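Entry 14. Structure prediction run on the chain below.
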Amino acid sequence: MPHISANQVKKKVFLQISDQLIRSVTKTAGENSSRRLIGELFTPTERIMLAKRLAAVVMIQRGYSCYRITKTLKISSSTTSRFYRQVKLGKFDYLAKLLTGSSAKNKRERARIDITLEQLLRGGLSPRVGKSRWQYLNKQSKF
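Output returned:
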């Protein structure tokens, strides 16, 4: 878990820093630039934490059980319950809108998320049957 300093900055300074982060992230154009920026800004632990948060929200919105989310993402049941409550209270409405929009970009992103969730739920195993049974190995070797 990331460490947060006990010495807090003033609210005005925090807002300025936060705005700068948002401007930096939104200025990146393209997947490679975004990947590089996130790689430089966040530690591996922070990236995993953020990815698990995103996955938990998506899984809750798609109706997965708390038990399934907890076991798949290897997060505590209290974390899953907290996210479940937050989703139901509308905390992640903007994210839901992004993931359910009708634009072609949103549809492509949903398809990518679906593939990732499917791999998570299968524990990284290939599909049991079909001609694309072993293609996931080619995709994994590119990273």
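The CA atoms of residues 1 and 29 lie 29 Å apart.
Filed with the rest of this week's runs.
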